[in-house]
Amino acid sequence: MSNLLPDKISKALFIVTAILMSVNLYLIFAVTPMVPEQHWAQKIFYVHVPIAWSGFLSYFIVMLAGIMFLIKKDSKWDRVGLAAAELGTMFVILVLITGPIWATPIWGKPWIWEPRLTTTLILFLIYVGYFMLRKFGGHPERVSRIAAVIGIIAFLDVPLIFYSVKLWTPQFQLHPQVEMNQQPDGILFPFLFSMFTFTLLYFLMIRIRIHILNFKHKLLTEENV
Amino acid sequence: MLSVLIKKELFVELRNKEVVFSMLAFGASVLLIFSFSFNGNPKTMHEIAPGLFWTLVLLSSSLGLHRMFGLEKDFDAFSSLIASPVDRSIIFLSKWISGFIFLSITELLIVVPFFLFLGLSKPMSIFPGLFIVLSGNLGITAVGVLISGLAMRARMSAVLLPVLLFPLLTPLLIACVKSTAGWFNANPLEFYQIWVMIMITYVVIFGLAGFTLFDQITEE
Questions:
Q1: Which of A3, A10, A134, A183 can pair with A187 through a Cys bridge, CB separation 3.0 to 4.6 Å?
Q2: B157-168 helix and B170-184 helix, angle to the nearest 10 degrees
Q3: Residue A164's closest chain B neighbor by CA?
Q4: Do B174 and A165 touch (CB under 8 A)?
Q5: CA distance A20 to A18
């Protein structure tokens, strides 16, 4: 474990995240009120929304890292972009799994063309292409530059995808809206706590992943020398 | 310099007819399949025709876009092109404009068989449809040329192009289908102007993105 947590910040982040996540799970299962129409299905909302947020945050970081890589030409930013793309995709897959789990008892079917879910699915498909390029694209330096460009245009596409799908399927606006200030305290506080905890978990994971990619890069460089 | 590069693209295409011919041949084959697969009553065909038309355009364009950098790749001429004293963004613009012209010519040739084979009645007015189709073409080729340019620099470019292109084009495709449906149904522009606005926004965003980023993907 000490190899994965190279500095004091990572170690502190690990301890804090582990404690907060335990509290978070306790709050979700034991403290939050049961919503009458949704029963246990509603509990997934405390996980589904934070992982969706973390996924989109991650793809935003891919775009920022792509811009920095193209400006600075420093491979460090390519590794940040790759780490963020991997984690973003992992979180997005979880969103695509937890969404239908919630939807099946509530909507009566696992999938409808709801704007948030659809945007997530399309982003996931773009990143399937991104990873195919990373895996099979050939020349590593060239692939890094191309991947940075895809990371940028993928995120530029997000508002257009969301808006067009929203207009395309006005009948599918059944997704719980994010007007959280209208929620009772019993739901609002655990929800915000879960958002914070999952964001911390995300930052811990990306630190570890970047550390691993940096280490791998160092080994490959030494091997080539 | 832009006009010289566009002339070069048009001249090469006039000589070998590679891009338009491949899109047209593929488009005709897909149209044949559509005619047999969606052999519904006229009302159903009228409803699904906008979707079929843009699916046909999207599939054909992916083939043509793959050939946009085909000659440069085959003859290893891309290095010479980017080594020439031309701003690389201008190269993107020339490819974008010539791709747009090739796609528009292909559509012009395929649109009559499309209406005939699927038994569709002729729309009342031509100009709104023309504007929608040309805007859609601009959007498809803006992203298409950028993706084609970057896929051409990687291995497995024939696979990477559609895998990357189709999801990125989703908002444009929705807007194209919706506005074309509005036009087919002879609705007033106010009913589908939001979709036309989305198409224009898409063209502006991805035209600018291509213009700015093309320089990065062409670096050796």
A1: A183
A2: 60
A3: B171
A4: yes
A5: 6
Burial of residue A56 (number of CB atoms within 10 Å: 0-12, 13-18, 19+): buried
Q: φ, ψ for residue B183 (rounded to 5)?
A: -70, -45
Interatomic CA distance for residues B101 and B15, integer angstroms: 15
CB B96 within 8 A of CB B141: yes
**Which positions ≥6 away from B99 have C-beta within 8 Å?**
B19, B64, B65, B68, B141, B144, B145
The domains of chain A are located at 8-224
Domain membership of residue B88 as a residue range: 2-217
Q: Closest approach of chain A CAs to the CA of B108, in angstroms?
A: 27
Higher-confidence residue: A185 or B83?
B83
Chain B touched by A68 (CB under 8 Å)? no
Q: How far is CA B69 from each of CA A5, A123, B73, B150, rounded to the nearest angstrom?
A: 46, 26, 6, 10
Q: Could you tell me if B20 and B106 are in contact, meaning their C-beta atoms sit under 8 angstroms apart?
A: yes
Sign of CA dihedral A97, A101, A107, A109: positive
Q: How far from the centroid of its chain's Cα atoms is residue B70's Cα?
A: 16
Higher pLDDT, A112 or B200: B200
**Quick check: B118 pLDDT over 90?**
no
SS3 category, A179: coil
> Tens digit of pLDDT for each residue in B161-219?
999 999 999 999 999 999 999 998 888 888 888 999 999 999 999 999 999 988 887 77
Nearest residue to A125 (alpha-carbon basis) of A99, A87, A84, A96: A96
Percent of chain A at pLDDT exceeding 90? 53
pLDDT tens-place string over residues B141-175: 999 999 998 888 788 888 889 999 999 999 999 99
Q: How far is A64 from chain B (nearest CA, A)?
A: 14
Contact status, residue B21 vs residue B106, Cβ threshold 8 Å: no
Nearest residue on chain B to A153, judged by CA atoms? B209
Separation in Å, CA of A157 to nearest CA in chain B: 7
Number of domains in chain B: 1
The whole-angstrom separation of Cα A71 and Cα B95 is: 25
Return the closest-CA partner of residue A154 out of A120, A179, A114: A120
Beta carbons of B46 and B184 less than 8 angstroms apart: yes
Nearest to B203 by CA among B150, B152, B135: B135
Q: CB–CB of A136 and B206 under 8 A?
A: no
Q: What is the pLDDT of residue A180?
A: 55
The two three-digit tokens of residue A78, written as one number: 């390519």
Reported ipTM: 0.86
Instruction: Inspect the interface and report whether the beta carbons of A145 and B219 lie closer than 8 Å.
Output: yes
